[in-house]
Each structure stands twice: as C-alpha cells, then as structure tokens.
Amino acid sequence: MNDTAAGRSGFALLGAVQAVLIFTIMILTVPLPLVAREFALGPSGVLLLSAAYGLSFSSLLLLGGRLTDRHGGRPVLRWGLLLLAVASVACALAPGYPVLLASRFVQGAGAALTAPAAVAVVRALHPEPAAYRRAMATWGGLSVLGATAGSVVSGAVAAAVSWRWLLAVPVLAALTGLARSGALPAALPSAVPGAASCTAPASPGAASGSAPAVPGTAPAGPVASAGRRPALDLRGAALATAGVCAASYALVASTEHGWTDPGVYGPLAAGLALLLAFAAAERRTADPLLPPGFLADRRRGTALVAVMATAAGTALTFVLLSLYLQQQRGWSAAATSAAFLPYAAVLLVSGRLAGRLTLRHGPVPVTAAGLAVAGAGLGLLAGITPGSGYATGLLPALILVPAGAAAAFAGAAVLATGGVAPGRTGLAAGVFNTAMELGPTAALAALMALAATRPSVVGGYATAFAAAAAGLALTAVAVAALPRTTTPPDGGSAAPERTPSPPDGAAAPDRTTTASERTTRIEEFTS
Prior knowledge:
The chain has helices at 3-26, 32-39, 43-71, 73-92, 97-125, 129-139, 142-160, 168-180, 234-257, 262-283, 298-328, 333-339, 341-361, 363-381, 390-417, 425-451, 457-480, 515-525. By secondary structure, it is an all-alpha fold. The two termini are 32 Å apart. Mean pLDDT is 80; it is low at 189-227 and 486-527.
C-alpha cells in the first residue's frame, strides 16, 4: 500500500472514531424519556445521566492532550479506545442506574483520551503542513456529523428495538480502531522537512514557553527541552478537571433548577474558583498544562470562539426543535429523528465542499461565511410559532444551519490548529475539543434561561433562536476582521515576502535555509 493510500485509510478510521465520540454524546438524548421510565428516574437522575458523558469528556480533554504530547498519539489512542469499549459494554448491560451512570462517566474519560490522540495520529499521517491543513479542513465537520447521526439514529433504534443497541456503535468503533491501530504511525517522522524546526521559537522567552527543538527530532511536548518529555502537571490537571466539571454541571443544572438554587450557584462558584486557581497555577509551573500564551494568538482565540458559537447553534437547533416537535406538536421520537434527515443530508454534502472551499479561499472567509449562513438559518427559526409548518417553517433552517456549520467548523479547525508545533498537537486538539463541548453547555444554559423569561414556551424558543443568530452574526464579523496571514506560532515576526528570482546571468542567492526560515515557509502553508 502506498503512502497516499495508507494516509487515506488511516484518516478514514480516525475520522470515523471522532464522529462516533460525538455520536455517543447524543445517543441518549432522544430516548432519554424511555431510559428514565425504565430506571424510574426523577428529574435530578435524568439531568445527571444526560450530562455524565459530556462532563467527563470536556473536563479531561486537557489532560488527554498532555498525555498525548507526552507519550505519543498511538499509545494514548489505544488506551482511550479500550476504555471506551469496556465502558460502552457496561452501559449496554447496565442492570441499574448506578452502573449506567458510572459507565457514562468512564465513556467520557475514554473519549477525552481518544480525541486529542486521534488528531496527533492524523498529524503523523500527514506530516507536511499543507497535507495536515487539508486533513483538518475535513476534520472540522466530523463532530457535527456525529451529533447529527446520533440524533437521527437514536430515536429510530430506541423505538424499533432498545436504546441499549445504540451502544453497539461505540463498541464496534473502538474494537475496529484497536484492531487497526498497529498500522497507524507511532509518532511524527523526524525526517520530514520542518518537522522539528517548525517548533523552535523565533526568539528566546517567547510567550508560548517552548524550548528549542533538537535538530532532526520532534519535541515531546509543549515545553519539552532536549531529551525531556513535559511533566504531567498533575496539580493543573486536577484543578482544570474539577473546575470544568463543576462549572459545566452547574450550567446544565441551571436549566432545571434555576440560578437561585444552591445546587446551581454553589457548583458554579466552586468551578469558577478552581479555574481561577488553575490559571494562577499555570503561570508558576515549568510545564503548564495550558501555556498562558497559547490562547493569546488572535486567530486561534477567535477560531475557538467560532467553534463554541457554531457548536452552540447546532445543539440549540437539535434540542429546541426536538422539544418543539415532540411536546408542542405531538410527534413521536422516530418521527422527530426523521425530521432531521434533510439536515444530515445537507451536512454530508456541505462537509465535503467546505474542506475544498477552505483550501481554495482560506479559512478566514470560509469560517466567516459559514457563521453568517448558520446564523441566517437560526434567524429563520426565530419566527417559529405553535402552528409553524415543517416544509415552510422548519425545513429552510434545517438546510441553512448545517450548510453554514460545516463551513464554519472546517475553517475554524484550520485556524485553531494551524501553526502549532508537532509536540503541541495534543494540546491544540484538547483545546479545540474542549471548545466544542463547552460551547453547547454554556450557551444552552444561558439561552434556556432567556427562553424562560417569555410567557409562552414557543415564544421562548423563538427568543433563544434570535439570540443565537445574533451571536453567530457577531462572531462572523469578528472572524472576518482577522488578518489573512499567520505569524509564527511562538511569537516570531510575520512571514516576509518571498525572495525574487535573480536576473539572467546573475549569481543565484544561497538557498541554505535556517530553522527560522523553514518555520516561515511552513507558516505560509497555513495562512
């Protein structure tokens, strides 16, 4: 098998795994009432079960990224897939609520290891910057594809057989990934031009804190010095995990209990305090889990906001339209899932087109246009009424939202991960996936609280859709204002203009390049 075929096969496997990780979040969303009846769950039990996977997934992603940068993508991928497979089997066979709840938490932990490791292996499969950029343009839309598939499939399967059969999907994906993981590269090949040199900081003491790379080798992690892997930063991992988990739980609980409930503002205050302690601790740590300068890059920071806003918009579409169709219109779970089939079809087509558009026109205009189109779709849903018809009232939005979301995710993935040193791939992937998970959690809490201020349920839905549309429009403006060129990842100067060819008869200039010049040329691929 040639390298191109091997790369495509490996990317297809890893892409399927990434989509299944997000699919697994959604598999209990539609059939949750059936699960609640089977285990006689009250509101608090339903709330915790619905949030368990996402809580552990989002709160452990930074640690998963550090483990990836420390030990390599392939070993951590195997650990995560094994954990996911065991936990999924336990979920499917759960005799009672405690086992099911604990298994969902463990599933999320396996996903938190798998997601950043998969991106690191993708980079090892496509070590050249231009090839990696093409891969990430496609990767960006896989998560929303998985979420859509979960929403569409879960209702039909739960109605036809049992919700437990849905757990076969992550089990099969994990076992397939484990069986084929031996064919995946273990690390970024050191012989690739620029693989090591692109990690060297442009100047000593750069904001990111990276140490210079050893020529001919890829650094082990964000701040690894020669021959040394970065420390685990267990204190930072504990603070980040506890802080994200507590704050996320409070945001989820607010939709049921309100902001004045001690069970909401207590965990929220504790989570924010832990995150502040995490930020302070990272500034005093030699090998920080999240280097303070990593999010300072304007392009990366804005791209992560775009990811959060787009993920929030798509999640809001699924949640509110599912509630609207089932509770306000009396549709069954299977019929509700079928209503999203056009959404899934548009997503499949637009996902392929979005990657090509990103490569042709650049990530900035594609991300901005995608946000604007998705925002327009949400704006149409702001006109929803108790009697809105499907074909005229909902279907246009179910076409615009996925078309825009695919473009926004494709461009934002390139912006968020571009210009990152190979030894920081796990960190970049962990931050990207954290934004993907926290966006819906935080936005749904805020938008559902806003919806509750309206006297009618459907009127509240309309208000939430309008607010989400405005948020995506503002984010589109912010993305459109970004420069079209990048700066070196470790704080160097902008890429200079190319040297013109010498005139006829003149001596050719010396083509020997330094590490910083190779860095500049690599960065030109990701502009």
